[in-house]
Prior knowledge:
The chain is mainly alpha-helical. The chain is 59% helix and 8% strand. The chain has 6 helices and 3 strands.
Amino acid sequence: MKKKIPVVHNIHHKDATKVHPILRQYLGYCLIKNANIVKFRLDQAFHAMDMATPHLGILTVLEAEDAINQNKLGDELGIDKASMVKLLDQLEKLKLVQRVGCKKDRRVKYIQITTAGKSKLKVARKIAQEHEDLFLAPLNKQEKALIKTMLNRLLISDQS
Length: 160
């Protein structure tokens, strides 16, 4: 049976799970392909909530940081200013975040997660966890812990 993959956020995917066997020899290909599969499936699930995977990251950071400068938020997440403005506009339209002016500098905007944003984040986290569990289902408990530990170690070592 052929998988029917819908258009998500104006991106046409023929089949996000398609993998060419000869390319499995490349670590980068495997990492990117797996990341694309996880992101695509999560975006599909979030689409019904008017959310996308970057929104999950933004809301998670905002919940942890309380209020953060818009530019610093983009910098910490590796999102350029123009894209960050669009993402925050989307979240603000959904009343999940609010922009708060800085008393010292009117050009500076702080971003805060709203009560509705915290509620939506709770649901999004549950969905993300369900999709992560589904994706990692072929692995046993120890393998799941190991892959997370190893990937985080690689991320941390690349930051130094």
